[in-house]
């Protein structure tokens, strides 16, 4: 699949604001891959596609989860988590993406998971710190990302968990597992 065509197809799935975010994640993911000895081409592809289904109507995402056997646990958790799994399914079926590392990085970019690969970390962290992001604490996470993706992600997941607790929402178990595992890796 030609990258320019994939860019056009991805852009067509989302409003301009989400597309600008996507371009920020691509730029940041490539930089992180270069800084941390990852694969910039894989980082670029996974970042480009990471929010592929984000702007789809919620019913369409739910239908994919139900009809194509995606993790049923998703349906009991925040709808914000759905686009990551649905996006991985969509780029595989609609665009023939078969690189399992790229598909996993898309699938786990929101929640994280235990045993995150380098590519998972690059995409998830780039999503948190791309230049268009502006939430309390983002500057500190950007600073941590200068020397450690693990430290930056521990802070990033920590801030997400804190916000979810503050709002009385459920926390998807993979996010807790991801953070615990990253803390273990620091020891
Ligand atoms: O798709 P983006 O907006 O670029 O970012 P994302 O895919 O990281 O989605 C983040 C949203 O997901 C954020 O509003 C918090 C929400 N969310 C809901 N439950 C959970 C969660 N995020 C994580 N990491 N874990 C959860 O349990
Ligand atoms: Fe996302
Ligand atoms: Fe994220
Ligand atoms: Fe994103």
From TrEMBL:
Family annotation (Pfam families): HD
Residues forming coiled coils: none
Catalyzed chemical reaction(s): P(1),P(4)-bis(5'-adenosyl) tetraphosphate + H2O = 2 ADP + 2 H(+)
GO MF term (any one): metal ion binding
The UniProt record lists the keyword tRNA processing: no
Keyword ATP-binding among record annotations: no
Domain called HD: residue spans: 18-132
Assigned keywords, A-Z: Hydrolase, Iron, Metal-binding, Nucleotide-binding
Catalytic activity, EC: 3.6.1.41
SUPFAM superfamilies in UniProt: HD-domain/PDEase-like
PANTHER family in the cross-refs: BIS(5'-NUCLEOSYL)-TETRAPHOSPHATASE, SYMMETRICAL, SLR1885 PROTEIN
NCBIfam families noted in UniProt: bis(5'-nucleosyl)-tetraphosphatase (symmetrical) YqeK (TIGR00488)
Protein's recorded name: bis(5'-nucleosyl)-tetraphosphatase (symmetrical)
């Amino acid at each position: 699949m030609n990258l320019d065509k994939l860019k056009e197809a991805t852009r067509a799935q989302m409003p301009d604001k989400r597309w600008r975010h996507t371009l920020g994640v691509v730029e940041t993911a490539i930089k992180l891959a270069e800084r941390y000895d990852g694969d910039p081409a894989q980082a670029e592809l996974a970042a480009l596609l990471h929010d592929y289904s984000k702007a789809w109507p919620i019913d369409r995402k739910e239908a994919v989860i139900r009809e194509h056997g995606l993790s049923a646990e998703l349906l009991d958790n925040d709808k914000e988590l759905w686009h990551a799994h649905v996006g991985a399914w969509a780029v595989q079926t609609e665009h023939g993406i078969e690189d399992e590392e790229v598909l996993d990085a898309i699938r786990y970019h929101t929640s994280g998971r235990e045993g995150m690969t380098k590519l998972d970390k690059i995409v998830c962290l780039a999503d948190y710190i791309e230049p268009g992001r502006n939430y309390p604490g983002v500057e500190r996470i950007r600073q941590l990302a200068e020397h450690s993706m693990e430290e930056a992600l521990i802070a990033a997941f920590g801030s997400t968990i804190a916000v979810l607790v503050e709002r009385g929402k459920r926390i998807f178990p993979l996010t807790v597992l991801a953070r615990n595992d990253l803390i273990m890796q620091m020891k």
